[in-house]
Amino acid sequence: MLLTTKFFTPRRQPQFVPRPRLMRQLDAGLTGALILVSAPPGFGKTSLVADWLHNRAVREGSSEMCSQAWLSLDEQDNDPARFLHYAVAALQRVDCHIGERIVSLLQSTQPPKVEELTTLLVNDLARLERPFLLTLDDYHVIHNLAIHQAISFLIENMPTGGRLVIITRSDPPLPLARWRARRELSEVREQDLRFSPAETVRYFAQNAPVGLANTMSEHDLHALAARTEGWVAGLQLAAISLAEHPNPGEFVRAFTGAHAMIVDYLTEEVIQQQPAEIQAFLLQTSVLDRLSAPLCAAVMGLGAGDVHASQQTLERIERANLFLIALDNERRWYRYHHLFAEMLRRAYRRADPATMAQRHERASIWYEAQSLRDEAIHHALAGEAYERAGRLIEADAERLLLRGEAVTLVGWLDQLPPAQVLRRPRLCIARAQMHMLFHQLDAAEAAIASAVDRLATDAAVEGNSLVGEILVLRANIALNRSRLDEAIHLGEEALAQLPADRLHRRAESLLYIAIAYVWQARYTHAQRYYAEAVKVAILAGSPLYAIQAMVYLAQLYRFQAKIDLAHRQLQDAADYAASQRIDGLPLMAAYHVNLADLFYEQNELAQATEAVMRGVACARQAQNVRTLVGAHAKLLRIQHAQGDREAVAATCAFLREQLAQHDFPAQIVYDTWLELARVAVRSGDLETARRWIELCGLSADAPQCATRESEYTNLARLLAAQGNPDAALRLLAQVAESAQTLGKQTAQVEALAVTSIVMRQTGERVAALSVMERVFRMAVPTGLVRTLIDEDEPMQHLLAELRLRLAAPNLVSYVERLLGVFEPQEPPTPPSSEQSTLHTAIRRLVAPLSKREMEVLQLVATGCSDREIADQLVVVVGTVKRHLNNIYGKLLVHSRTQALARARELGLLDGAGVGI
Predict the structure, then answer these.
(1) Which helix (H) or strand (E) holds 904?
(2) CA dihedral for 50, 54, 59, 65, sign (positive or negative)
(3) Measured between alpha carbons, how far is 248 from 371 in angstroms, rounded to an integer?
(4) What residues contact residue 253 under an 8 Å CB cut-off, 6+ apart?
(5) pLDDT for 796-825, tens place per residue?
(6) At residue 659, does pLDDT exceed 90?
(7) pLDDT digits (tens, 9 = 90+) for 40-65
(8) How far apart are the C-alpha atoms of 521 and 514, rounded to whole Å?
């Protein structure tokens, strides 16, 4: 449950002095994306912005109509998922449809990263048809880098009409200098907020008691303004203190010192001037960030019948201008001015620290009764009620994990004494899950061991589903350590222990078992578990687990050369993702990469390129380096097939750089070097291929082919290229046998095709054709294409000879289809002299379009709007607009229609023309 008081714009205070010069300054700031109000505490930042927003609200209905959202931040908002949840809820007060997908995803298992969700938020905001303002108050409490990055992304891509206001005590770590240079930033700072002598006079005339206002001379007021340096909080404290002082002039002359000294002195004096019951109320309720009459009564230990009295006290304090701010029109919720609250807490901590802890615990009890669990835990920890805090965190740990609020959970666990964590098995499990997120396997195992020890000694939790959850974690650890039999065994045990309704944990366990079976090349078992994982994940409402299992299942079909089934499975994944409204998210990177692989196999290189580039874009946006490397490995194969040497060299360099920079799992290293080695062998770069063999630990003398058939097939290619065909043939025979045994038909076809080529090169022409005919009888039902034609010219010669030998119509048709790939394309029809002149002129006048600009241009040609293009390319609308402006400049046009006409003249939309 969200705390709704965080969305209340503070009410305009009675003592507020109108400051038209600052109102004009804020209005002028609406020309940029960000208004920054930055000054130390007590300078009236929040009051100023609240009054400005109030004035703007009064003007609603005019041409300047603007919807406004407010979010008051606190230390607990440093969890990126929690921050985004609250930000979306605040913006939904502008439009209830903003962030619907984000809220849904945050409530699912395995929520996407904050970068992906921020992209969705920007796209939702771009759909608003009216201006809007989002104010983030107390932004200085935020120190999480991911949140700063999300805010920076939002500001950089702020839709037209959108404005962000940040109120803070210190400048946030955002690129302020860059925005200042672009005139996207407007600033209100300490020197702007200081009261002038004239404003000081108005303040006292408006707020001081009549007797005091008449007693103090203008000279005294100007002196007070000078002594406080226009500091609003100091003026307010001075006004309260002066009301009871016999000699105001003497008071002003003695009123010196730094802000902190002034506040300590004046706060103590202001408190001592209050009646005893008000003093007690102020101190005891200072532990609260927000106040209501029922909450104050509970914290002070009063009965239900005293709630009305608490309400009267709050209203009395507000009328006395004692730094109490009403948060709603009904005056149900209030908060103390932050500076005053800090001083009250210091005074209370000095006076009675023991009862201060008691007040926190009472607040925790009240919040728990209201189902506001985050606040209940916060106060339990603040009051060092660790037994209570441990119980609350234990009950809430899974909810936080499922919402992706791992940062919040880690913070809570770190505040608990270790003994409190160790005696609660669910907290040990939560700690282990935190370690797994950061791949800290040893620490995770230690936390699991603590949970097991506690379970063994606590009869109250015997038979609990925690046993099953521990087994799921251990299965994950075993899988990460490549202990595959152990992972399968633990996963099966977990399924036996987990209750039927623990669906997301069951889906997780099914996935681990399936992956282990794949790595053991036991594909029949893996297929069954993947299919079950899909069903359970959908029932669990875990679209990310479901998509993951669907994509992995398609990959499995690809190994088995079941290309049609793989396509169908990926289509199911795409349809399901669309139904869950996650189809445009970066988490779909693996889907795009696997789709590219299928297009490539069928020699549909344009579609393969488009799909793999989407995979690259998604992986970059999600900052998923593993998937990014996998996508570039697929891209390398496509570029080599297209004969783009420069692109191949660039991609090879990128992959080598990534392998050097990151500590990837062995399988990723092997798969990446496999693609590099394919290119190296076919290009005659045998030294690079030799290094690949050394890195992967392959040996032709004692091959371990199972699960690594493609790697050993490439080793055989290298051996043949090095003049050792006999060793190559022996190795290929073992690879083909292993692939057949394991049902890896794609790998078997590849191994036999290379066998046929090596045989032909050694003069065994008849045997080579016989093997090749066997290959074709296997390949025809599967539709494999690139697996064969990637063998280049040697395969072309074999196909030409095989064509004369075959009689079966289906085999003949298939051979002719493959031979057609090798045939030179018809030269394009020469352009007319007019077209040629235009083409030449354009080439002199414009720069080539980039790959991304070409993608945008092609989507424009299909009739897509800016919004639809942004969704398809997984970018924000502002990025699309920048690409369109670049395209217009390069084509020397001014509109979409002109751009499309010019593009057709240049042949850009036919895949020819200006270089990309």
Answers:
(1) helix 896-906
(2) positive
(3) 50
(4) 223
(5) 988 888 888 888 888 888 888 888 888 654
(6) no
(7) 887 889 989 998 998 887 766 544 44
(8) 10
Asked whether 601 and 559 are in contact (CB, 8 A), the reply is: no
Paired tokens of 287: 């532990």
In whole angstroms, what is the distance from residue 106 CA to residue 138 CA?
Answer: 24
Q: How far is CA 106 from the centre of its chain?
A: 11
How would residue 110 be classed by pLDDT, with cut points 50, 70 and 90?
Answer: low
Number of Cβ within a 10 Å radius of residue 131:
17
* 325 phi, psi to nearest 5 deg: -115, 125
CA distance 81 to 408: 9
What distance in Å separates the CA atoms of residue 565 and residue 571, rounded to the nearest whole number? 10
Token pair recorded at residue 584: 């445009």
Cβ-based neighbours of 117, under 8 Å, separated by 6 or more: 84, 102, 105, 106, 111
Sheet of 67-72, strand order: 67-72, 132-137, 162-168, 34-38, 185-189
CB 425 within 8 A of CB 467: no
Q: Specify the length of the chain in residues.
A: 916
Judged by average pLDDT, the poorest of 129-133, 267-271, 900-904 is 267-271
Query: What DSSP state is assigned to residue 826?
Result: P
pLDDT at 40: 82
From CA 401, how far away is CA 692, in angstroms rounded?
Answer: 40
Can you name the residues that pair with 186 across neighbouring β-strands?
35
The residues with which 137 forms a beta bridge, in sequence order, are: 72
Q: Pick from 858, 872, 868, 782: which is nearest to 592 by CA?
A: 872
Please classify residue 36 by burial: count the beta carbons closer than 10 Å to its beta carbon, then call 0-12 exposed, 13-18 middle and 19+ buried: buried
pTM: 0.66
Half-sphere exposure of 350 (CA within 13 A, CB side): 7
Token pair, residue 523, equals 């594909």
Instruction: State both tokens at 430.
Output: 């939560």
H-only helix segments in 403-483: 406-415, 418-422, 425-437, 441-457, 466-480
Q: Does residue 887 sit in helix, strand or coil?
A: helix
